[in-house]
Amino acid sequence: MKAWALEGFGLENLKMVDIPIPKPGTHEVLIRVSAVSLNYRDKLVVEGLYNPELRFPVTQVADTVGEVIEIGTGASRFQVGDRVISNYATRWIDGRPAVDEVVHTLGNTINGGLAEYLVLNEDALVLAPTYLTNEEASTLPVGALTAWHALVKNGGLSSDQTVLVQGTGGVSIFGLQLASLAGARVIVTSSSDEKLERAKDLGAHDAINYVRKPEWHKEALRLTSERGVDQILEVAAGKSLGQSIEAIRPGGRIAVIGILEGFTSEIPIFPVLQKQVSIQGIVTGSRRMFEEMNAELEKSQIRPVIDTVYSFDDALEAYKHLYRGAFGKIVIRIQQ
After folding, report:
1. d(C-alpha 92, C-alpha 227), whole Å
2. How far is CA 32 from CA 2, 25, 65, 96, 222, in A?
3. Where does the Enoyl reductase (ER) domain start and stop, copy by copy (predicted)?
4. Where are the beta strands (DSSP E) in the chain?
5. Strands of the sheet with 58-59, listed across from one edge
């Protein structure tokens, strides 16, 4: 079968290779892959920042949708013909997280979905929502589930809240859609006026260009009559986290979901104490959360926002697009 394997750190080492079709073992299923979607995490893997001890070669990409075509011994959760999606945290079934959710992931310690076929333990899979195309379904494991976990599961998203989402990447756009569906007020930040206008078309009430207004937290306070926002999807970290603390209301929640500005932050502690702010790191979600989210998606019929769909042969171009940034998700179609 054809697969895109990382043979060393650096995008120049992502190569299309021929490898045997894997056979499902105990409690595993064989999936004919239909589509995958890219995340910022995939860039970090390629650059050696996600797992410096990565063992090569390893097939790339975590977010995968496909059809079950063979079932291994003891596997009972799915049938041949089922359309399934990978869960990013493959061993997080339910309950409290452990510390290794980011370890047991596709494209990292497990061969990923950027291939014609994938073998995966049945416990790491959920059924795809019936109303979504393969390309749309592939966007859910990181983008949608992270936003759901942060805003809905932990944040109790409601119509009386104001939510600030940073940027217009996959998680932030899903966060915007979920918040808009709940009737919440949404503020979006971006460096692009064009992307901010597109965000407004999706339901954002207010937009802040952080290039023109680098002290964007002050604008967020102004927009909320100095009250502050109820929830923030913090994708940048670095200096941005301190600004989020300034922009949040007393008792508000900041979900740290990304590290665009770096792996460390220096934050003022007194405002955290004074405002009694909750700051929580989010790594996607458990399989139980994924299944709960999918049930709600079936009701709401939210359509994921896809920037561009690339062919399997053009996977490198998809990665280059990821490096430039996207509005919503970048998808690679493996086969129809």
Report:
1. 37
2. 12, 16, 9, 32, 51
3. 10-332
4. 2-6, 14-18, 28-38, 58-59, 63-71, 83-86, 117-121, 125-127, 162-166, 185-190, 206-209, 229-234, 248-256, 278-281, 306-311, 329-333
5. 14-18, 2-6, 58-59
Amino acid, single-letter form, for residue 76: S
Determine if the pTM surpasses 0.85.
yes
Reading the chain (336 residues) residue by residue, the pLDDT tens digits are 999 999 999 999 999 999 999 999 999 999 999 999 999 999 999 999 999 999 999 999 999 999 999 999 999 999 999 999 999 999 999 999 888 888 899 999 999 999 999 999 999 999 999 999 999 999 999 999 999 999 999 999 999 999 999 999 999 999 999 999 999 999 999 999 999 999 999 999 999 999 999 999 999 999 999 999 999 999 978 888 999 999 999 999 999 988 767 778 888 888 889 999 999 999 999 999 999 999 999 999 999 999 999 999 999 999 999 999 999 999 999 986
Are 168 and 199 contacting, i.e. CB atoms less than 8 angstroms apart? yes
Tokens, residue 156 = 């109790």
Q: What is the rounded CA–CA span in Å between residue 165 and residue 300? A: 21
The size of the chain, in residues, is 336
Domains observed in the chain: 2-139+305-333 (3.90.180.10), 144-281 (3.40.50.720)
Cα distance between residue 154 and residue 81, in whole Å: 34
Amino acid at site 97: P
Give whole-number Cα distances, 142 to 3, 38, 166, 174, in Å: 21, 9, 16, 10
Is 122 in a helix, a strand, or coil?
helix
